[in-house]
Amino acid sequence: MEKVEYIREAVRSVLSNRLRAILTAAIIAIGITALVGILTAISAIDNSVNSNLASLGANSFTINTEVGRWERMRKVAPPLRYHEVLQFEAMMKDKGTVAISTVLSFSAEAKYRSQKTNPNIQVVGSNVDYLKQQDVQTAKGRLFTEQEMENGQYVALIGSEIAQTLFDKEDPINKNIRVLGRSYKVVGVLEKRGSDMGGGSLDRSIIIPLTNARILFSSEPTFTVTVQVYRPEEFESVMAEAEMLMRRIRNDRVGAPSSFQIERNETLAEELSKITGYLSIGGGVISFITLLGASVGLMNIMLVSVTERTREIGTRKAIGATPRQIQWQFLLEAIAICQLGGIAGIIMGLLIGNGVARLMEIDVFIVPWGAMLLGVTVCAVVGVAAGFYPSYKASRLDPIEALRYE
Fold first, then answer.
1. Each residue of 196-215: pLDDT tens digit?
2. Which element (helix H / strand E) includes 156?
């Protein structure tokens, strides 16, 4: 019961000085907002990354090159050629599905009559297995037929944002749009997906048949191959076989490094998790510095409060309050103020973190319970650290001297 009375007295003291308590709590709230907001946004990004990698399947690996970023790379790692990926596909089709894709542009502009999109459209050429691995579904229309894929016909699947911009309420199916200087018939509108892990989005993408995409390049494009193995228990052997096969197709010399990259998607997930882990640590350090400044400010305010309430302390001691009771009162008052700021900071951090996620088109509301528990714990620690010395100073005041204080 004694502890309950300490808490009641601390709450009464906080309520009697509302403005000072609010301003002090606001200092703490800023630090907790930074902590929870950063961790919430990072959790949303991590969730999006993992879900996008999961769509590729755990039993898959990717083969590509880094061509185009540096001219010197062309001599060391020439891009995957069309005939190479077709040969690879034919020789690996009994081991797994072989998705082949190429990106024609990241900044294309699509037009329909007088309407046009912003120049931020991604145009992708793909084969049938790419659509399967990416789990591409249509909200309207259909996917490509085998004949359209084989003949390289001018047909396209468009993202939901493109359909909204160009057609509004008009049905886009079987309408012709212009992109990259060519006319394409829209056969399907993709389901809304949101942003992927690379910051792109199928909602702002146009997919065309791989054979058609190849003829749009003035030079040979570079291709990316993703193999999803039929039997997970054979994954390691199939991946090793695929590497040897691609080396043979590309005429890599014995003992020389491979002229391509082969990477399992699980490894990519682990690397991305490390990056988000580093971001979390960085966010925690920034938040710690903010909270350190907040704790100094709180200690200063509590010291001022002790000075202002010297006569009150003297009166309480004169009627029998012990130094321990005085110390507990001021310590719990500091903790109460910190917890008020912590609750406000957690709420604002949740809203800001998820707001950042929505700006990145990650349509998932994240509630990081770990970050929230950490925020409450940090507030208690800050309250104890900032309130201990002022409460100790208050408990050591001489009651006679305190009553004389003006």
1. 544 457 889 999 999 898 88
2. strand 155-158
Cα(134)–Cα(181) distance, integer angstroms: 27
DSSP string of 184-245? EEEEEEEPP--B-TTS-BGGGEEEEEHHHHHHH-SSPPP-EEEEEES-GGGHHHHHHHHHHH
Mark residue 68 as left, alpha or beta (left: phi above 0; alpha: psi -120 to 50; beta: remaining): left
Confidence of residue 55 (pLDDT cuts 50, 70, 90): low
Distance CA 123, CA 117 (A): 13
Q: Which stretch of DSSP H or E encloses residue 382?
A: helix 369-395
pLDDT grade for 178, boundaries at 50, 70 and 90: very high
Give the residue among 98, 105, 100 at the shortest CA–CA distance from 68.
105
Domain range summary for the chain, segments of one domain joined by +: 2-51+270-404, 66-259
For residues 8 and 268, the answer to whether their CB atoms sit within 8 Å is no
Q: How confident is the model at residue 324 (pLDDT cuts 50, 70, 90)?
A: confident
**pLDDT at site 89:** 93
Beta strands 121-126 and 96-108: pairing type? Answer: antiparallel
Asked if residue 120 lies in contact with residue 107, where contact means CB atoms within 8 angstroms, the answer is yes
pLDDT at 199 (0 to 100): 46
